[in-house]
Design a protein that fits this description.
With 130 residues, the protein is α+β, with helices and mostly antiparallel strands. 22% of the residues lie in helices and 32% in strands. The chain has one domain: RutC-like (60s Ribosomal Protein L30, Chain: A, 2-Layer Sandwich). The longest helix is centred in the middle third of the chain and has 18 residues.
């Protein structure tokens, strides 16, 4: 299998041994989960879950751009929430990022996330192989 690692300038540095994204066979791009880390400070943004979700999408956009794709090419989204009572707020921000036809999505509650984040989101995008 052919895979290429993507390092996104301006995105928060990975907090472990993983790539920002990996392109497989030149068509699918798998983005690692992003948390609401401010790339400038390396710390979680302060504010409610809507602020955190917006930062996550800003971070994901940097990785998508570095991978040569955009939100329009996203085919699958996995959302991890520490508290499912944040679902409606996350969904409102999510709806401002994606347009129909929407990507497939899974949202699950987790016991905890790195650095105390309330949300983490990972994506899979389809890149034109041409």
């Amino acid at each position: 299998m052919s895979r290429t690692s993507v390092d996104a300038p301006g995105a928060p540095a990975p907090v472990g041994p993983y790539s920002h994204a990996v392109a497989a066979r030149g068509e699918l791009v798998y983005l690692s989960g992003q948390t609401p880390i401010d790339p400038a400070s390396g710390r979680l943004v302060e504010g409610d879950v809507s602020v955190q979700v917006r930062q996550v999408f800003a971070n994901l956009e940097r990785v998508l751009t570095a991978s040569g794709v955009s939100f329009a090419e996203v085919v699958k989204v996995n959302v991890f929430l520490v508290d499912m009572s944040d679902f409606e707020t996350m969904n409102t921000v999510y709806a401002s990022v994606f347009e129909a036809p929407y990507p497939a999505r899974t949202t699950v509650a987790v016991a905890g996330l790195p650095l105390g984040a309330r949300v983490e989101i990972e994506l899979v995008a389809l890149r034109d192989a041409a």
